[in-house]
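Record type: monomer structure entry
Structure origin: computed from sequence
Chain ID: A
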Amino acid sequence: MTNPLLNFKQTPHFETIEAKHVIPALETILQESRANIAELQKIPCPDWQNFTYKMECIDERLSRVWSPVSHLNSVCDSEELRAAYQSGIDLLTAYHSEVGQNKALFAQYTKMRQSEQWPTLTKAQKKLIENSLLDFKLSGAELSHDEQTRLTEIDQKLSQLSNKFERNLLDATQAWNLLISDQSRLKGLPQSALDMAQQSAASEDQQGWLFSLQIPSYLAVMQHAQDQQLRQELYQAYTQRASELTDDGRFDNAPLIDSILELKHARAKLLGFTDFAQYSLIKKMASSSEAVVDFLTELAQHAKPTAVQELADLKQFAAQHYQQADLKPWDISYYSERLREHQYAFNDEEIRPYFAAKQVFDGMFEVAKSLFGTQSQ
C-alpha cells in the first residue's frame, strides 16, 4: 500500500490521507532521519553543503510528513485521527529531544561557526547556524545526562498537556449548540447565516435553525442578530468555553494551565534561567521582561485615548439611533457593525459575491506569482 504522506513529488492530497497512514509514515521518516543524522555527525569537516544544507533537508522532509497531519487534526476531527495525532506527538517530542541533546551534532554546528568557511557565508546562512546553536543549548545539549533525562520528561509532559488543552477547547466548542425554532428571534441575520443554521439543524434531523460556537455561526449572531438575549447567550457560552463554568467542568482547562506553567518554569530553571519569561525572550528582540512591560505600558498610554473615544462614539451612536444607552459586552460587535453600515453604506453581504472561493484562490495565486514566480495548476 502506498502511503500518501510519503509522496514527496507533489503537494498533499488531503482526501487520500487517513489516520492509519500517520504512524507508519512518521516511523518511516524518523528512521530515515536518524540514519542520515548518524552519517552527518561523522563528517570530519562540516560545511554548508555537506552538513548544514543536508540537515535542513532532513527537517524539511519531516515537515512534509507531519504538516498535513497537523492540519487535518485541526479541521477534520475524529477519534481515530486524535489517537494517531497524539501518538505522533509523542514520537516527535522524543525525536526532537534526542536530536536537540545530541552532543555530536552540537559539535558539528560549533565547528561550522569556527570554520574558515564562516566569513564566506551569507547573512541568512550565518543566522541559521547561530539559531541552530541556540536551539541546541535550549534543548539541553550542554546539560548532564540526568538533567537531559529530566528535560525530556518535562517536554513529553508539556506536549501531552498542550494537546489536551487544545482538545478540551475543541470539545467544549463542539459540545455547545442552540436550536432556535422561533424565526422572529433571528431578525437582522443575513440570509447566508440563516441558510447555514438551517442546514446545521437539518444535518441533526431537527427543525429550525441550529447555531454553534464555530466562528462563522458565532460572528453572524454577534454582528447581526437584533435579539440582545440571543447575543448574550452565545457570548457567555463562547467566553466560558473549557472552563469550570460549563459542561460540569468536563473540559475545564484551568488545572492544565497551572500544570503547564509549573512545567515551563521548571524547564527554564533547569536550563539556567530565572523564570520562563527570561527563557522565552532569549530568541526575541526584547532585552528583558521589564522591557516588555515598559513597551506594553507605553503602547497602552498611546492607544487608550483613541479606544476611549471610539467607545464613546459607539455609545453615542447606539443611544441616538437605537435608544440603547448602556452597552454590554455582547452589544459591542452588533452596534459596531451598525455604525460601519451607517458611515460607509455597505455590509458584508454586499461584498460577499466579490470573495467567492475561486476568485480568492485566483487572487492568492496572482500574488504568489508576482512575488515568487510560481505558476498555478
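Annotation 1: The beta strands are 177-180, 209-212.
Annotation 2: The chain has a mean pLDDT of 94.
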